[in-house]
Amino acid sequence: MTFHSRIAASLDNPTLQQALDRNAERRVAGRNARFAEMPDMEAVRDRARAIRIEILRRLDFYLEQFAANVEKNGGHVHWAADTQEAQQIILGLIRSSIANHQPPSANALVAKSKSMVSEEIELNHALEAHGIRAVETDLGEFIVQLRHETPSHIITPAVHLRREEVSALFQEKFGMEPTLDVEAMTAVANRELRRVFFTADVGVSGVNFGVAETGSLALVTNEGNGRLCTTVPRVHIALMGLERLVPTLDDLEIMMRLLPRSATAQKLSTYVSLLTGPRRAEEADGPEELHLILIDNGRARTLGGELAESLLCIRCGACLNICPVFREIGGHGYGSPYPGPIGSLVSPALLGPKFGELAHASTLCGACRDICPVRIDIPTMLLAVRGQQIDEGRGPAWLKYGIALWAWVMAHPGRYALAQKLAAFATGLLARHGRLRSLPPPLNTWTRRRDFPAFARETFRDQWKRRTTTNGSH
Amino acid sequence: METTDDDKRKSLVIRSLPFMPSSRAHILASLRRSLASARHLPATPSTETLWPTGSLITDYSLLVAQFTSELRAVSGTFLTTSLAQAPALIAQLLRERQATAALTWTQAQLPVPDLHEYLRGQGVALDEGQLPAAEPERAERLAAVEKIKVGITGIDAALADTGTLALRTGPGRSRLASLSVRTHIALFTPSQLHASWAAWWAARPDKAAWMQAGSNLALISGPSRTADIEMTLTVGVHGPAEVIAVLCSS
Fold it and tell me: I need a surface site. Which of A278, B24, B104, B232 has the fewest CB within 10 A?
């Protein structure tokens, strides 16, 4: 499916349109209420931005400090340059974790807690291809996985579905009695997933923040699935993009004032876990092994380029909720695990230039920059991506020649004046009641959905000349 | 010739090992190259922005009032009692839930003296949740622990401005007692109540070393919740459906 056909599919889906509107309104209103009740929220944002900039500017130092501390706490650190290497390492760890099975069992079961980076490296596909069953345990992700779909929102993955669809799914998969009661449906998922938590060989989670000074992994969830995945299975594998650090525990506390308020309009998420190494010998429970996979996958390269600032992102999803384009086309419209305004930067930066076209899905209104808790200048970087698209010859040909023609016209006052006169004359000929119903290609993309107003018969320059001569002076 | 599962397993492990040192060096070198020429990275703000303070409430009765209302706002339950009457209250909570067993921190880790003795006297089976390290014993023990419906723990701090309970693991402090149960009863004393996360950490200058002494710190704000189906709030999805914070004064 092309970008344009995905957009058309989203626009033609009334359920999705309704869900997206409701999501946007509630999330944005909730976020604003949470920010308004804190007197020093602007100072918190400044501080958080400074913390993230400090991390990026000395990322090599903090990464080494962090990795050393994870190891000191008894964890294992694995460095993955790209998707393939990350998959290989994880597969190897899962294989060796079931190698110790007595009696040996054929297939490994993996309990997964929501992780954006696991979508980025397409982990579930890789595991499935090797006969490993990986079950998403976040309720929204669980539903989406059962439907063989991808998440439509980074915070609320099943936002595109109605309760009727979830009910039908659970009736089919688990023989649930027909009901539209959300609590009853949740109870069914709960029963299925509890079995997964308590029989899984390995728990896989993401990481919201790594704390360099202690080597702690901060994990934020509401359902408790994150805690179960990282407590019950004997082996815990944590996946982390290598930029997701803060220097100290004090810095983490500052970030946590912003993340839940921006993401879900909560003062604090129900569970914030700080995982500092595996179970200690004298502790009652917890995983026996902790493996951290530090994933580069283009991040180090991005740091040196025009999209460096996009690495400040804390993945709260606020820019998705506020974006007038996301609100129409939803997460699936973008065709990337990272949708929305920030996704239109992160996707081309990490997943390749073919995602550059996403940068056109923006009105450049700047609402994303205003709502971003760490004030990322998203619109300016969207323009940079568009520029790269044209420079590298990936834009449509008419755009390239169109811009060249425009530049040639604008570079000389005489050409500009002539162009104005031509435009006024031509549109004057074609217009009815001052409006054009249709234009020839490629301009017909404008008139397909709306009229084009004719240019004024008298240009601004002519008007100016007339007024200054009749008034004598200006 | 067909490769056996064992061969595949071995080859995967072996192939993943040599990556590690070289990828680490490669990634760090790539980072340093980028940082040396990072023209587009925003400058570190030149003036140190003021450290935001957060809650400034210090009055004890106001803190209790705030903790209570915030915990209730996230569907938690708040009770007060005295240390002397706490055992009877907890026994009653168990009876109301028809619970004859509890997953609990060891007596030494709880602020209420003689609680275990009292509960055993009431016929409650107490499980301290100690898991063996090796399989299959670990899995067998887990299956038993998983069935227990009520958990009893202490805490390290209660945070008033978010209604949060902070629990760090250590010897005798089961993680599952606050996680796999339906009802989590958390016992604490007045000195453990702080205005906010920031205020708690300001009172704990040794927090980095303290953090590294245990494998897990959980900050818990009310029962487990989800809004993943049509943004309809549902309580008790994977974690406890009930969180009861019991403030025990002397």
Answer: B232
